[in-house]
Amino acid sequence: MKRFSQLAAPYIVWAVIMLLLPMLLIVLYAFTDTGNEIMTFRFTLENFVKFFTDPDFLLVLWRSIKIALKTTVICVLLGYPIAYFIAFSPDRMRNMLILAITLPTWINMLVRTYAWIGLLSEGGIFSQILGLLGFEETELLYTEGAVLLGMVYNFIPFMILQINTSLSKMDRSLMEASNDLGADGIQTFLRVTLPLSLPGVVSGISLVFLPAVSSFSIPKLLGGGQFFLIGNVIENQFITVGEWNFGSSISLIMALIMMGTMYVIRRLDAYAAGGRKEGR
Amino acid sequence: MEEKALIQFRGLVMEFDGQTVLKNVDLDIHENEFVTLLGPSGCGKTTLLRILGGFLKPIEGKVYFDGVDISDVPPHKRELNTVFQKYALFPHMNVYENIAFGLKIRKMSKDVIEQKVMKMLKLIGLEGFERKNVTLLSGGQQQRVAIARALVNEPKVLLLDEPLGALDLKLRKEMQYELKRIQQEVGITFIYVTHDQEEALTMSDTIVVMKAGEIQQIGSPQDIYNEPVNRYVADFVGESNIIPGNMLRDRLVRFDDTDFECVDAGFAPNEPVDVVLRPEDIDIVSPSEGLLTGEVESVLFKGMHYEVVVETVPGTSVTVNMRVIKNNEVTSGDGKEKISANDFYVDIEDVKLLDDKEIIARADAQAWLPETDEFISINRIEYDLKEEEGEYPVTFFTSAGTMIQRTIFVVNQPFIRNVRANEAVSAFNFFKTVDEITESQALDTDLKTWANAQGWKLSDEDQSVDISVDYDFEPEKIREGVYKVTFSTTGREFKIRTTDYVEEETEVGLRFNPEDIHVMRRMEA
Amino acid sequence: MREKKRPIGRLIMILAIVFFYLPIVFMIVFSFNDSRSLTSFTGFSLRWYERMWNDSEMMESLYTTIIVAVLATVISTVVGTISAIGLSKSRRIVQDVILQINDFPIMNPEIVTAIGLMLFFITIGVERGFMTMLLAHIAFCIPYVILSVMPKIRSLDPNLADAAMDLGATPWQALTKVIVPQIKVGIFSGALIAFTMSFDDFIISYFVTGRGVKNLSIMVYTMSKRVNPSINAISTLVVLFITLVLVAVNVIPIIRDRKLKREAGDIPTQINV
Hints:
The complex is a heterotrimer. Helix content of chain A is 75%, strand content 0%. Chain A is an all-alpha fold. Chain B folds into three domains: 5-233, 3-Layer(aba) Sandwich (Rossmann fold); 239-314 and 511-521, no CATH class; 317-488, no CATH class. In chain B, helix 2 packs parallel to helix 4 (139-151).
């Protein structure tokens, strides 16, 4: 019914104003000079030059990518076995475990991250356990390790759920066929189960890596002021310094990096999905 | 069957969620045999196969392979391979890699693998397909790859779990021959699971017929077809006429009120039995020459032959009066509402089942607004019924007070018993208007409903018998009056396969030889 | 699969569950602590709940969070559903472009969406505060509603609305009596996602708010430097609330199914109504 298409008209206007226009504004600000008057803007590349010539900013960018990579690797290594166990549990158990993994993700991320402060702080449970194990008293909170922990904690459920989905929907008879053809459990895992679950791993990676790169509340809460990431730089430019043009250009750089990553991941995904193009 | 048994199942018991799927199964399978496990879904045939493959562990019982107990051997160490129901080809590998999988696991050298895979591709007729993506192959091709992938490992036994189920009919026929050819060429044991009796008869050396976790019969296709041990096997394998009878003494059986010579023996005197007569073993002759006589009910052309149905024992029938009346509607005083209903008959025994809803339904009471043709509800009915024969008034009202009065006839309706055919039929006289009959969209069904016609087995009242309707008026041109409507059951029929055409409704005789009669033990209920 | 006990898997699973719930349990326990310490539990008390109750800033942030979440959910669910239905009947090109734009807040890092909206509000010269926060929440919630409703609409028979109107329904009736009931699962899950997205949002709210208007996340973020166990108290309430919502969402359909099944047993035969 064509008459129903009119129902979309208000949203089309809204989407252009509230979703598209703000993105265009970021681009506009990124390429213009200081000055908030729309009428007086002047095209410039200076914001980008400033970013790429300052070693401090580059270091922060590199640090952000590094910690996001570490987070991703840890999430894959820890998340896979968990997802595997869930996927091969009996139905009822599987549903319960999935609920158990999903439940915390529905709780406010700030709240969950805040809870770690107490656990990691001086004299808290973790330092007591480490003390009992004979380690020296070390600072746990406000370190890179704490930030990494916070990120893994927040993002690993997405990895687990993605891998679990791809393992759960895998035809069980494929594994039986592998067994039947003489492969033992480990061979079956390496040659059949793992390759077939790679698409899940790949989409898990994108769900972990992207938010990790741009995160700024986790480093702020668990890293204190000491551990600065690119998100914190952007926050500073907007909230504290008031350099909107420079802040916009950093956001744009970050957005471009993420788009690039998405592209690579999509390619990986196509490959992992068994994109053999030989047969016709 | 002098060869030694390659596989022995002993006392297998299997349960899923407390439900028994295998009940103490013993079975021997010999070398180089093509064995088919045949039965409907849920009979345990696939379970048996999966136990042999090592994917299920029986609750009780042992599996011996070459005399060695393999009950605890994991699947990857068993010398047999499986072709899975939906092939289970590895989607991330091409044709070559799929077939080479087992050989690579065995760490064979590359050139040996290549040689073997190529030989297999030739055997299944898919040379040149090595690099193809398996997910892009047709069903038949995937099927062949799955077979090659299993056979390349040179197993002693190949297990096939309904492998042709996903293929269309023509391809299925082709693959039947193909499978038989491959089995003869490689010369190993095939254990084949199917629910398709034709597939089983075509390919097998031995058929194992299963039902509800038990083996019913083991034998060659000829044995199974010609000498089924019971009604179940006879019914499942091929088409057959199965008639209840009595074994009077050795080599003399009685059915359809006639004594017949036969070749079977070893039953107790007068033992109730089931008799099988295959449709192709019966000849149609003139009534005087026939061992049985009957009327030709239907003749269907089937290409190679005619399928003739002859009724030897007539069905049971009941004829009732249908009173067709002109108009049964009442219009309210202001002309805004109309209401209609019919008189109806009801059996004394059914009076207690009548409630408001049932009476509205049986009287077909309706009320509507003639201006808009909108139905309105009948919100009150008044009646006073007793469980005695008689006529009782009933009045239907709408909420606006428009009413109509009708009569309920409570009668003691006798039903027609037919002891010979073990059935009974009952039906009631009924009233209808001209419009209701001309407007009926499925008159036969409506007539059965209006007359409340029912048929059942005398031996078991809960078992209903199909009823057909017969009348000789033209529904489109019906007028007021009384018409006869007959409800009847089908009676005893014989299906006959013949190449000679016969006219429908002619009297014919049926002939068969004593050796065509096959007598079976009755199955326990 | 052969049944095995899989002790290693079991151990991994137990450790994982401990990892996921340790901070939450810790937070709940310490919200009842008698002292200010976040490391040693000195005794049971409700003083932090009392403190929370009397802290006007906290209570206001809780109030803001709830009001914004409820309004954003209702508005975005209604608008999102109607728009999705409209879009599904629009020309292909319009549909593709709008859905692409619709994906921005879902695909982009939240901080980019946040900055964009902030710049937008500054540029058009609106003072930032409660209204801008609400608008921003509606802006990022609608896409999730559309995303969860759209597949349901696509799986509908395209002739459904026509069939309803052919049978005499007005377009409005076709919409509310035929289409909406068919896609209500999608609408419901869209609303649920919208609610939790709004309730949990930090980054976007943080950038588009002003005049001291804070939601819970912003409050936690700005207070995190000082040790303040009242945060544990209010967080415990949040956890309790979300758990209740989720349990309700998971349990209600089961109960309803059972009830339906029971009722299906004795549906009366319809007689000329």
